Amino acid sequence: MTRQAPSRAWGLARPTGMNAGASREMLRWRWPVLAALVCTIPAFYIELLEQLPTPLATAIYLLAAGLLGVALWRVARHLDHPRQYLRRNVLDLALIGGFVLSALLPASTDSPLSLAVRLGVAMLSLVRMVWTLRPWLTRGGLAYLLLLAFAVLCFCGVGFWALEPRVQSVGDGLWLAFTTAATVGYGDIVPSTPAAKIFSVFVVLLGYAVLSLVTAAIAAIWVESTERRIEHDILRELHAEVSALRAEVTALRSDRREGGPGR
Predict the structure, then answer these.
(1) CB 93 within 8 A of CB 71
(2) CATH architecture of residue range(s) 138-263
(3) What digits encode the pLDDT tens for the residues 157-175?
């Protein structure tokens, strides 16, 4: 079989000997799996807020588990060592089990076990989605990172506006999202409902990470400008020393020609 370099399309584990078929399957199932993971976020709040029938959330959990399972199987069947690949994909296997367990457990905020399972699954889903989007999150460029941070804050602001009754406008939601993501916490607006409090946990994890990327990009620009200035100074001094050495060599050759063979 034709061997290719390990793919970085999706998943935490990458086969060491990936063929063309496995690579195609990973690329083919990347976006359906990501879409299913994104749908589990509103499924979590559907059950938490109890504004919609819980069978819808159950169907979303089962659909996400099914897509993850099918994607793993379609990739593994093209590999020489499928069992080793499945053992390395602990996160996907844990998500499949977590989604199935979330679908089977009764949806109730009064049940510590049910809430803990759903929170754990939501955290794993967030990690999985961030890892899938890592090539887009770390592609660099200050303008791109600023646009990404703005998009994340807008999403979080709209989420607070929908979940928190004290947030009267989208502007208040954006302000609460920024203060939460930046871990400032002025206290003028605070999450009061269980849904908003849980949402604020994900806002801190996602928003703080994006803001850290922006800060790191700005620091990298400053460090890069300082390094360039130092390099220019070193090159200028090196050119001056080379010019002085060249002048000395020229003077020595001139003295040797003027002194003649006998000298």
Answers:
(1) no
(2) Orthogonal Bundle (1.10)
(3) 988 888 888 898 889 999 9
